[in-house]
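Minutes, project check-in
Item: structure for the 63-residue chain
Input as provided by the requester:
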Amino acid sequence: MSDDVTDRDYCLAGGERPPKADGPPYAACVQCQEPTEYPETYKGITLCPVCEWREAERTACSG
């Protein structure tokens, strides 16, 4: 794997990520209501880092 590619670049459900917030207020995670890394004004599904990781594990391609 090249140095400029991260695990976060693979298997994005739905394609694009919301833009990262520069600071508060942060959007609440749709699963656990914890703050996310995304702006509160973002319209769409937002997940906190923990739920995002769990979702990636759940939907990961095996093989």
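Outcome recorded: The beta strands are 26-28, 35-39.
No further action items on this chain.
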